[in-house]
Specification:
Chains A, B: This is Phosphoketolase family protein. Two copies of one chain form a homodimer. The first copy, chain A, is an alpha/beta fold and about 800 residues long. In chain A, about 35% of the residues lie in helices and about 15% in strands. Chain A folds into three domains: about 350 residues, Thiamin diphosphate (ThDP)-binding fold, Pyr/PP domains (Rossmann fold); about 210 residues, 3-Layer(aba) Sandwich (Rossmann fold); about 160 residues, Rossmann fold (3-Layer(aba) Sandwich).
């Protein structure tokens, strides 16, 4: 790929639209509209070389016309700006169901054929382009992974600005042109994302140029912003911090001139802001970045009136303006005259190739927005320079002899990653970096903030690159945009509130799953999510903070993408983090609490353990490997691992001849059959750990059902007795949490004895002893509700936790 | 409960704050602040009758001081407004971690003791109040289900305005005072909820009075709105449509006078808007509702400087300003002087009861915001007048002989519910009511919209009560607010995008689960969620629209709350809907597609089938009940039921002596053991359907793992071979969807034969025949990618779907 021009090599001025340019921009736009309508309607006769007949029309009409002409209009003018200036631009279509418009753009720019050689730039290729759209075996009706030039899936609305802001961070030469539809603008995530400008640094980051495209209607009715007084809309956007440029109308060529001028003005503003910031002539206040409000009729240039009803400019133009073309000759005639209104004979030659007039509108090479490498970020990806994570290891002289906050060590690793990768790594977190014990990163970078900073602030500056905003949607979406353009990062959040952005996790997983099927899409850095402040240690915050549900949602993704890690201690966490940060195109979920916790493995042991994904902890059990154990005690997750180790200790001390095997699982997907997930253990290894017949008492961090579904299909899966979080949460002690959810050491001991292959002598006594301990605890709970000194006791002894 | 004054009986004027009122409002505020600090710090000596010692201090200091004085300040003044006017008010605390402030308010108003008699209004009760806060066995650190007066859990931020708007719909006499914190204001859901005013009708609805409380900081840093130029903040809120009233400062008593005046002004504005609308003097334009921006220092009235560092007014005041009180005598001394600065001796008598001066600040009876019945909506709930749902039944002369869009019948039922319940039922939907085939409701009610309406609009008016906004967060949250205040409704949405608001579903489930433990909380109408446009029939939209994940999240809720229904046809849907709309305090998830589908059961059969939750479809299978079947074919979900019935038909026709039993499951929770869920079948019934040993081929609508986890613990659960959605989605035909996910009729036939108790003669031939059908389909897919006529074939034959 040719090296793109840097910003400083571009022209500084955009001239007014000449007649020649107008002609070519308008021709390109007409061609894009023609191709859009063709995709919705035609399966033959793509260039109208004959009169249109019902047989040319697709049997099922799908797709969205309404937003498409606006999307193509903006695209055409952005291309012209690129040609004038050499600006690198990434186009993000918020009204993502305008898919045919973006497909048309890629086709006109030649990228579509370069990407999919079977879709040739001729009549047959055009027929194929039309036929594949929103039809079986084809492409979706919205902008998607298959669309060259896109990093943004148009299915679930709301994320176009977060993706745009993520894309321009540490990308100084890039402008992300983000078209926001007025339907999408009603979603919470979108409304919460305008404030990205409060976090952008004009010297180091690129710029987002939002175009709020108000066509007034969504599927079935008007939009809020489309119907508000324009003064209110302006006020709203100015309030978010933008310099609002308004363009509206339907007159041609007037709209071409006005929009070209608006775009040139916006680009000039961006250039001036960046030049000042980069040239040292900046007082540090947050710039007022330009934003364009574009008002055009919905379904602009489409049929005005159909069956006596107003179509253009109303919600009726949202999808297919002429609905019964095959059956209704009037509709067929209307469609033909609509298509011919773009004068296709001027746009495509006899072979169906775009004419010179149209092609002149395209920028060159990788400056074409459908071909920019920023939209295929794996091409630009440089691996992280990772410090040796072993340097941050905890010294563990013996298992369970040291207690510390594991995430602090990760914080130190992240700090040094910031230092060695000042241009391509960021941490994203909803205001909890220090709370999550990752505060060491502030030794390497401040929090980034473009609004006013005061002397009382702590590690906040406009140059900071740790991204804190109290919005999971922003954090998640920024990281998506950042990784899809080839850079690396981590989203750290409270476990329970990871569900706020669960749909983003799912949709990003779907993106990566689909990208796997497209060889032209280069692998991108993984989406790494750290869940901390977990259910088990939110005893003080109570039930609303106790929810390990994201695991359930990640394990349902198609085999190769989702990975869930439950490191039991700091050294395992370091090993897992190193692995995840090196990986590409996965969704890695890492779950570990932030409170002081026991440490089990040396760094060498942790490396080996994590590499296997699961392993026997011989030191914890009594199984000497010479015969089958009486029971397997398995665990996944830090707190339940502590309970399991404690249960094994009780059994070891009180029933030394009872053969207990302790298996710790770090990589949850290792439980799955290998044919269902690449991390799945083969049957031999699985049976080495779990046997194929001994009962397994499995203590799990999350909802027990997750393990049931993961081990399904393993030999005699019914023998897995899983204990985990069963929604018994409240404001209580850490130990009471494990008792309430029946996963305490005493429950595990009783489970082990009840399910063992043989009943050892002394089993009844030990069970009675466990019952007594639980009764003591119940009494403790009663007393604690009535008598104050027990609070002190709770803190001193950790609620008799260990 | 005393009947509350109607709006028109209230006073019209609020006088300026007199000296006497100032004294009592200020005293109440000081008392609330005192109690807040007490909750965070003290476990003994609550009234400082002796000098404070380390032994009086809780061993672990938890809680959030920063936002609390502001919350109490607003509360004190709202109470004064209520006393002056008789206005019914509901107080929603967005900065929900200001829990101690709201607990203090309830305690000062006497409600806390009325609700929890053990927390007496005396010294011992106060000690108990302090001790229980954010401590084991106590209450969470944020506003929660346990807080009298609250319908809003403060754990997961972002929903205070959606709850407030939902609460005032069809509640003309209510003002919901919604305090929005500047931390919460950064979340997407909150930013997306300001626009509630665009949907409120001043004649029929009550009013939301937002107080945006800017104290400038969140946990660890400044907030965006706290640091923006105040002119930008004003511009933003005016852009949303509000009339902005600003009050700021820390001076006393000046702040009391200014805030009292602001509140009086806001209330007067609301009254004037409502009076005009209700008196007929309204031009129909959207009112500019008042909104107060209150700027006070974070941790106002708390320690200014601690250990030489500025505390008040900074993020450091967020939680516990004095962190080491037990260990550090300076901190202990500071705490004591801080507490004494409120002059507790004026606020509480020697017995620890609030003095007359403080009590005078409380409104009377149910006008106290901690005692308003609107916050315990079950008290106000009137059951729906439900038309006989059998009237909408489909005539089904024989199973699988009729095909229609099932949700249309539901739409007709909902239409008539609108008619018979014009004051207490609403449908909430992100712009998809017609798309989801529920459009019959528009015969009874328009869409509600307060912005400009044009002649071209379809069923939109300011009087409409069907709520469409392109925001799952708004729809979901409005319904929550509506049901928590005692009214009924349904949220209908595309299945895949239900994950957008999944965290709301989870948090609402948690609310209902906790409320079950509190006898004083009356049961409220259930949260009913209809998922349609399902994964299996989003063939044209593709993979991003294919996600049945919400089921996974609902089945993990604690036993009694979550219910999942998969009606296979219209009559079952009607029966399920009737059941759900009569139910209380559940989260009911109903999943059914909107496309034309086969109808199986008469309404009588459907009623009986749904009442049992699952049942044998004798007409579909060959099992005559005289002996065990050779295989059980089970199904849950409309599309997979069709495949199962078709598979059974193939087996019946080709291997008539093979005993196939078809079991359809409507109520997914019936699969769970009865001890784990009230809907769970007892073992006898379960075995009557599934036997305890015959293999079950289970075709499931969602991810297969869900069924594995539900049947865990049933006899020999490993015999359940579950097929379902395995993330094999794309743009394709409906039939290809079931083939790709290996749940087609042919896969099911082969599964049945492979897992049957005996291999019938002809099994190999039939399997080969199935393989041939799948090979044909594979060829069809290949051809279809290359040849146009197959598209026509796909539509005509439904992709050879049946």
């Amino acid at each position: 790929m040719p090296k793109s021009a840097s910003l400083y090599e571009t022209s500084d001025q955009v001239s007014a639209l000449s007649d020649a340019e107008l002609e070519c921009v308008d021709a390109w736009w007409r061609a894009a509209n023609y191709l859009t309508i063709g995709q919705i309607y035609l399966m033959a006769n793509p260039l109208l070389h004959k009169q249109l007949t019902a047989a040319d029309i697709k049997p099922r009409l799908l797709g969205h016309w309404g937003t498409s002409p606006g999307l193509s209009f903006i695209y055409a003018h952005a291309s012209r700006l690129i040609r004038e200036t050499g600006q690198q631009m990434l186009y993000l279509a918020g009204p993502g169901h305008g898919g045919p418009a973006l497909v048309a753009a890629g086709y006109l720019e030649g990228t579509y054929t370069e990407t999919y050689p079977a879709v040739t730039t001729d009549t047959e290729g055009m027929r194929r382009l039309f036929r594949q759209f929103s039809a079986p075996g084809g492409i979706p009706s919205h902008v998607s992974v298959t669309t060259p030039g896109s990093i943004h899936e148009g299915g679930e609305l709301g994320y176009v600005l977060v993706h745009a802001f993520g894309a321009v961070m540490d990308n100084p030469d890039l402008i992300a042109l983000a078209v926001v539809g007025d339907g999408e603008a009603e979603t919470g995530p979108l409304e919460g994302s305008w404030k990205g400008v409060s976090f952008i640094n004009p010297a180091r980051d690129g710029a987002v140029l939002p175009v709020l495209h108000l066509n007034g209607a969504k599927i079935a009715g008007p939009t809020v912003l489309g119907r508000k007084d324009p003064a209110e809309v302006r006020s709203l956007l100015e309030g978010h911090g933008y310099d609002v440029i308004e363009v509206g109308g339907a007159d041609l060529p007037g709209m071409h001139h006005r929009f070209a001028a608006a775009l040139a003005h916006a680009w000039g503003r961006i250039r001036a802001i960046q030049a000042a910031a980069r040239g040292g002539d900046w007082d540090g206040t947050r710039p007022r970045w330009p934003l364009i409000v574009l008002r055009t009729p919905k379904g602009w240039t489409g049929p005005e009136i159909v069956d006596g009803v107003q179509m253009a400019g109303t919600y009726r133009a949202h999808q297919v303006p002429l609905a019964t073309v095959r059956e209704n000759p009037d509709h067929l005639r209307l469609l033909e005259s609509w298509l011919r209104s773009y004068r296709p004979e001027e746009l495509f030659d006899d072979n169906g190739s775009p004419t010179e007039l149209v092609r002149r509108a395209n920028p060159a090479g990788s400056l074409r927005m459908s071909a920019t490498p920023h939209s295929n970020g794996g091409l630009l990806m440089r691996p992280l320079e990772l410090p040796d994570h072993r340097r941050y290891a905890v010294d563990v002289p013996a298992p369970a002899s040291v207690r510390l906050e594991s995430t602090r060590r990760l914080g130190e690793l992240l700090r040094d990653i910031y230092r060695t990768n000042p241009d391509r790594f960021r941490l994203f977190c909803p205001d909890e970096t220090s709370s999550n014990r990752l505060g060491a990163v502030f030794e390497a970078s401040d929090r980034g903030f473009a609004e006013r900073v005061t002397d009382a602030d702590d590690h906040i500056s406009r140059d900071g690159r740790v991204m804190e905003v109290l919005s999971e949607h922003n954090c998640h979406g920024w990281l998506e945009g950042y990784t899809l353009t080839g850079r690396h990062g981590l989203f750290a959040t409270y476990e329970a509130f990871a569900m706020v952005s669960a749909s983003q996790t799912i949709q990003h997983s779907k993106w990566l799953q689909e990208a796997e099927n497209l060889p032209w899409r280069a692998r991108v850095p993984s989406l790494n999510i750290l869940l901390t402040s977990t259910a088990w240690r939110n005893d003080h915050n109570g039930f609303s903070h106790q929810g390990p549900g994201l695991i359930q949602n990640v394990i349902t993704t198609r085999g190769t993408i989702g990975r869930v890690y439950l490191p039991p201690d700091a050294n395992c966490l370091l090993s897992v983090a190193d692995h995840c940060l090196r990986s590409t195109s996965y969704v890695n979920l890492i779950v570990i609490d932030k409170q002081p916790q026991l440490q089990y493995l040396t760094i060498d042991e942790a490396e080996a353990h994590c590499a296997r994904g699961a392993g026997v902890w011989a030191w914890a059990g009594t199984d000497d490997g010479t015969a089958d154990p009486d029971i397997v005690l398995a665990c996944a997750g830090d707190v339940v691992t502590m309970e399991t180790v404690a249960a094994a200790q009780i059994l070891r001390e009180r029933l030394p001849h009872f053969r207990t095997r302790v298996v710790n699982v770090v990589d949850l997907m290792s439980l799955v059959r290998h044919r269902d997930h690449p991390h799945g253990m083969d049957e031999t290894l699985f049976n080495e750990l779990f046997t194929d017949h001994v009962d397994v008492v499995f203590a799990f961090h999350g909802y027990p059902g997750a393990v049931h579904q993961l081990v399904h299909g393993r030999p005699d899966a019914d023998r897995f007795r899983v204990r985990g979080f069963i929604e018994e949460g409240t404001t209580t002690t850490p130990f009471d949490m494990v008792v309430r959810n029946r996963v305490s050491r005493y429950h595990l001991v009783m489970d082990a004895l009840n399910n063992a292959r043989r009943t050892p002598p002394g089993a009844s006594d030990l069970k009675a002893w466990c019952e007594a301990r639980l009764a003591e605890h119940a009494q403790y709970v009663v007393d604690n509700l009535q008598d104050l000194p027990d609070i002190r006791d709770w803190v001193v002894s950790g609620g008799r936790h260990e």
